[in-house]
Each structure stands twice: as C-alpha cells, then as structure tokens.
Design goal:
Structural class: alpha+beta
Shape: elongated
Strand content: 25-35%
Radius of gyration: 29 Å
Number of domains: 2
Distance between the termini: 13 Å
CATH superfamily of the largest domain: Bira Bifunctional Protein, Domain 2
Largest sheet: 9 strands, mixed
Helix content: 25-40%
Length: about 500
C-alpha cells in the first residue's frame, strides 16, 4: 500500500468515527460571525467586548501540546490562530478534535478573541464543529505543487497553497472590473452575443465545430463577436462592448490558449485615429487603478504605460528588424524567401500578407517593449477595415503592442457593403486553396450592412495578455484559472 493510500484510509476511518459519534461530517448549517479579515481588522474592539465569535475556515496547520492544540484557520480572506484546550471544551469534544481533525478539514469554532504570550491574535475555542472532512492530504506547505503541469491541472490546490497565485487572479479580476468601469463611465453598453454561431467570422482562425441535434445543423464556437456587435450598430446602438470568451482551434504556446478572453468595443461616428487616443487613455487608467503605478516590471524590463505612446508604420518594422530594404514593393516571393532565411514557416496557400504577418510576429513584434502603436497596414491585412483615404493600398488600422505582445487590434470599420462583399470573395478564394483560418462569406452580415451601418471604429483587447503583463508572468496558463490541458491518463498517486 502506498503512502497516499495509507493516509486516505486513515482519514476514511476518522470519517467513520465521526459518524459513529453521531456527528455529520458534512452538515448543511454553518454559523459565522465575521470573515477572518474582519476579525483581524477589528481585533482590539472585539477583544474589549470579550464576546464569543463563530469563526469558520480550513485547518492549515496543527501544533499539539499535550492537553491543548494550536491550529491555523484560513477562510480565503485571512488566517487566524485557534486554541483548543481540554479544560475549555470538555474531554469528549477535545478528544474528538484530536482524533479526527486533520490539516485540510473545514471546521467552525466558537470562542472569544485573545492574545497569546507570543503576542499572536487568536481565538480561544469553547466548542467546535466539523464542516467538511478532507480525505486527501494537502501538498507540502512550503513547496506546494512542484510539478508545473499539475499546478494547472489542479488549480484549486495551486490557489490553496500559493498566495502569489491567489493575488495574481485577484488582480486579473481587478483588471476586468476597471475595464468595465472605464467603458461604462464613457457611456458604453455591455451586451452579449452568441457563442454558438452558424458561421465563425470576425477573425482569421480555425474554429471548433459542433452539431445541434434538434435543429440538425452544424454550429461553431465563436472566434470573435465582431460581426454580431456591428449588427448592433446597424440596430441603432452607438457604443457597445462585450467581454467575450472566444475559441480558436489552434496551437497552444506561451501566449495562446484555445479558449481565451477578449474585450471588443465599437463606437459609431469614430475612426481609428480617435481610437488611438481612446485606447491609450483606457490602458493608462486600467493599469494605474489595477496595480497602483504607471510603470510595471516585466521580466528584466520596465514598461512605462504613463508616457506618450510611440507610433511606427508597419512597413518600417520590416526595414528595421527583418532587414527588407523595400517592404512596400517586395513581392510574395521576396517575402517567402526572407521568411525561410529567418526560420519562419511558409505554407503553399499563404498569400503575401499572411507571410508578412508571420515574419512580423516572430521577428518584429518581440522587439517592441514600450507601448507602441503600429499603423498603415496593407489592404490585404484585414477584410473588415476601411481603406485609408488618399491611399487605397493601406487600411485605417492600428495595433498596440507592449512587452512584445499584441494587446489591441483596432480599425475604422468597413461599412461599404459592396466593398465588403468583394473582400469576402477574396477570402473565399483563399479558403478554396486550403486556408482553414478563413471563414466563408457571411451573407447575413452583408444583408445587415445593406440597411446602412454608420461610420464606426472598433477595437479588441486581449485580456489574458494584459493580465500577463501586469502580473509579470510569461505563460498564458498562469493567468487562466483552468487552461486547456492535454488529457491525462488515469494512474499514479494523484489520480487515485
């Protein structure tokens, strides 16, 4: 029998002992006076009142001293020491605690606050109650889960044993809250659009496919909410946003997870130039209100979100970092050759803009550490963006990059249904050649556009990547509570 099995069997025996004593180890009723954080905050006042409190939490440490036991209780808001003594609870209650309570158990205690000789805020227990018996031993206190993969698979244990991880996800929630506050204050309406879609559009990505039995039709998990949000502009809403879960059937790496969170926002009667100022203000506000400073540490770099964000043209990046002398006039073959020289994969069906984008992502973008707006993209880079006035070879689009990560993609929205239809046709050709990231033409969206869509600008912000930057983490799995993981075969101690 393994050590794991021995421990679990011992705890099962304790569970049975509780039942034999007439104790329900998983009761429905719970009495609680205050959160532990509140008790610690108002401890001096509570000490003066000398009034019994009902305190609940998980046992995180136990120190026995003959006829008395010290143990630490944690409820998620804080940790406090409890002191149980035979003379205070009676021998039977004390013995039951001593015989059945383990680290990991949830208990409720009643008792008055007091301060130990070592000046530690504590609760003197007069009675206790088992709230939930733990059948498995928690990871070792000081090291937590040493296996990184196991941390992601068993995030509940990772959170339980690692305060830094709990703080990281609390900060992620704070980031989302601050984004909502900013947009709500600016008069935007938060909306919800379908996750199950008949066509997965609004971005270039391979979708997940499913089947609806009752309707006998295939559906796709959305890759982006864009085309539905812009239908709302047609419908008369002037400012809308959605914090959306998106799904893309693509590879997994340090910055990509198949399920991820994005903010998408659209405003009528605005353009990309306006959005550069708007998104800069958004980021500055969110960063300061979330982390308390305009400057953050990211690895060995310092990123300043508080200064003026620089601007650089897309083609100039290829001159500076990919060493392409004339990127504006270079052919598809020129880019393909340069890509191979730089170790960037090129597929037969890929158009020039796709090859360029792959070079940019691998070679150019990692060099952009401080917040930087990238402008003046070629027309083929996005089928949903307006062409620039005065130069139809370019689109009115920008990206905001920081720490080498794309944070924001934005453009003046194409609202010409004729032009949009022609661009969809070009996408259809790419799909016929084998590009699985291209969706077929969305005829329903085109129909909506023909009723009239106002001039508008929209942007998407990658919340996971922003969370990575603001928490100084370099793997997207560290900021997603339950990241997508490869199925693990049952077997071994942790899976029993």
């Amino acid at each position: 029998m393994s050590a794991f099995e021995e421990i679990r069997n011992d705890r099962l025996k304790k569970l049975e002992l509780l039942k034999e004593k007439g104790v329900n180890p998983f009761p429905a009723s719970v009495k609680k006076s205050l959160d532990i954080a509140e008790i610690l905050r108002d401890f001096e006042k509570l000490l003066e009142k000398n009034k019994s409190l009902n305190v609940v939490g998980r046992i995180m440490a136990v120190r026995a001293h003959g006829g008395s036991i010290f143990f630490d209780l944690s409820d998620g808001t804080g940790k406090i020491q409890a002191y149980i003594k035979k003379d205070e609870t009676g021998e039977e209650s004390f013995s039951l605690f001593n015989d059945t309570a383990d680290i990991g158990d949830f208990v409720g205690v009643s008792g008055v606050p007091f301060i130990t000789k070592k000046n530690e805020k504590s609760i003197k227990v007069s009675s206790w109650k088992m709230l939930a018996k733990s059948l498995r031993q928690l990871p070792e206190k000081w090291h937590g889960l040493s296996d990184v993969e196991e941390r992601f698979r068993k995030r509940y244990l990772d959170l339980l044993m690692n305060e830094d991880v709990r703080r990281r996800f609390a900060l992620r929630s704070k980031i989302i809250s601050e984004i909502r506050k900013f947009l709500d204050k600016e008069g935007f309406l938060e909306v919800e659009t379908p996750v199950l879609q008949t066509l997965a559009g609004g971005a270039l990505a391979k979708p997940f496919k499913t089947h609806h039995n009752a309707l006998n039709m295939d559906l796709y998990l959305r890759i982006a909410p864009e085309l539905y949000l812009k239908r709302l502009l047609v419908g008369g809403f002037g400012k809308v946003y959605e914090i959306a879960r998106n799904f893309r059937n693509e590879g997994i790496d340090a910055t990509h997870n198949p399920e991820f969170t994005m903010l998408e926002s659209y405003e009528a009667y605005r353009d990309a130039e306006y959005l550069m100022g708007f998104t800069e203000n958004l980021l500055k506000t969110v960063v300061v209100n979330s982390v308390g400073d305009e400057k953050i540490k990211f690895g060995d770099k310092e990123i300043d979100f508080g200064g003026e964000y620089s601007r650089v043209k897309y083609f100039d990046l290829f001159k500076s970092y990919a060493l392409i002398a004339s990127p504006e006039t270079a052919s598809k073959e020129d880019y393909a050759l340069k890509a191979k020289q730089l170790g960037v994969e090129v597929k037969d069906f890929e158009e020039k803009e796709k090859i360029m984008d792959n070079i940019y992502k691998k070679i150019c973008r990692p060099k952009l550490i401080q917040p930087t707006f990238i402008t003046d993209y070629p027309a083929g880079a996005s089928p949903l963006a307006k062409r620039k006035e005065g130069n139809r070879e370019l689109i009115d689009r920008f990206q905001l990059v920081a720490g080498g990560y794309e944070l924001i993609n934005a453009f003046s929205e194409l609202n010409d249904p004729i032009d949009q239809k022609e661009r969809f046709k070009e996408q259809d050709k790419a799909k016929e050649k084998g590009d699985e990231e291209v969706s077929p033409s969305d005829e329903e969206y085109l129909e909506a556009m023909e009723y009239g869509m106002p001039p508008a600008a929209g942007f998407g912000l990658g919340i996971d990547r922003l969370a990575m930057l603001l928490t100084d983490t370099h793997n997207i799995k560290e900021v997603i509570l339950f990241p997508t993981m490869k199925f693990k075969e049952k077997g071994g101690e942790l899976d029993k």
